[in-house]
Design brief:
globular, 331 residues, single chain, disordered C terminus, DNA damage, Endonuclease III, domain 1, DNA-3-methyladenine glycosylase family protein, 13% strand, disordered N terminus, two-stranded antiparallel sheet, 5-stranded antiparallel sheet, DNA_glycosylase, alpha+beta
Length: 331
């Protein structure tokens, strides 16, 4: 006879166990409840995790649950988030389960403080009012944020998402626990990325420049995730010492790993035009124009940019979209 279950203390993590049936062992999750301190829109907050509709590391299932497969410092783990904004519950599986549950509040914006944000433009004010639950996620995982960002350098979003998807399916590992449809994957560890053959990078549409940048980053390996404990400015400086990582890549990485409210993406192909069109009605704007327009939001420029993107239309296009370049054997 099994001993009676004891009720864990509030916030405590129950010990992992397995329920054994006739022929299979069903993993049982570690769980944690969390009550957000204020308004929270879970989908908006976790949106930066997603790298396209087919991202093998991220799912939102029809029941509204958010699933995330991640490689933590403790190992691979799968996180499932359910509940209402009034009270959320995290369930996690795998060696990284406890780490993911400890990080759950930060993932959902608990470390983000929008209280000092003041909207200076009508578009920003309206978007801020319509999206009071937007929080900036903080994963604490620098390498996991960096690699898909490098894949996005100088290519279309479609190309980058395809590369991420193919590389994870081919070189990642199945997500622990009952991941949806058994199609979720945890990205390789640093050694796994280093061992990817050059032809597989090529077949995924990743040119030598981006592949070389990732290989230089994974040589730093687990030390990259120690950057998560550094202030944003220091972490950006450390990242930019790696050849191939510039201001754009560092900002996009730190927005996710640190929840950096002021890490504005400079050097983006579309963002300055969107900001300029929303705030001044100009269809073509430079990085300098964007920095001037967002100067009143110093310390909160990334938050302001996200609100502008959520609350306004992009400028009309007058030319063809950038076409992806599929790899060939002769390229």
């Amino acid at each position: 006879m099994l001993p009676p279950r004891t009720r864990p203390q509030a916030g405590a993590l129950p010990a992992p166990r397995r329920v054994v049936g006739a022929s299979v062992a069903v993993p049982v999750a570690l769980t944690r409840g969390w009550v957000p301190p204020g308004p929270l829109d879970v989908r908006l907050t976790v949106a930066p995790w997603r790298r396209g509709a087919g991202d093998p590391s991220f799912r939102i299932t029809p029941d509204g649950a958010v699933w995330r497969a991640s490689r933590t410092p403790a190992g691979p783990g799968t996180l499932r988030i359910t509940g209402s904004p009034a009270k959320l519950e995290g369930q996690a599986w795998g060696p990284g389960a406890e780490w993911l549950l400890d990080a759950l509040p930060g993932l959902l914006g608990a470390h983000d403080d929008p209280s000092g944000f003041v909207a200076r433009h009508r578009v920003v004010h309206q978007s801020h009012r319509r999206h009071p639950g937007l929080r900036l996620t903080r994963t604490g995982l620098v390498l996991e944020a960096l690699i898909p960002t490098v894949l996005e350098q100088k290519v279309t979003t479609t190309e980058a998402n395809r590369a991420w998807r193919l590389l994870l399916f081919q070189h990642g590992e199945p997500a622990p626990g009952p991941a949806p449809a058994d199609r979720m994957r945890v990205m390789p560890d640093a050694r796994g990325w280093a061992l990817i053959p050059s032809w597989d990078w090529h077949c995924a549409g990743v040119d030598n420049k981006r592949a070389s940048t990732i290989l230089r980053a994974v040589r730093v390996g687990a030390r990259l995730d120690t950057f998560a404990s550094l202030p944003v400015e220091d972490a950006a400086t450390r990242l930019r010492t790696i050849p191939g990582i510039g201001p754009w890549t560092a900002a996009e990485t730190l927005q996710r790993s640190h929840g950096a409210a002021d890490a504005l993406t400079v050097g983006d192909l579309h963002l300055p035009h969107h900001i300029g069109y929303a705030l001044e009605g100009t269809r073509r704007s430079s990085d300098e124009d964007m920095l001037r327009l967002l100067a009143p939001y110093a310390g909160q420029r990334h938050r302001a940019a996200r609100l502008i993107l959520l609350g306004s239309h992009a400028p009309p296009r007058h030319g063809p979209r950038l076409a992806p370049n599929p790899p060939t054997r002769d390229s």
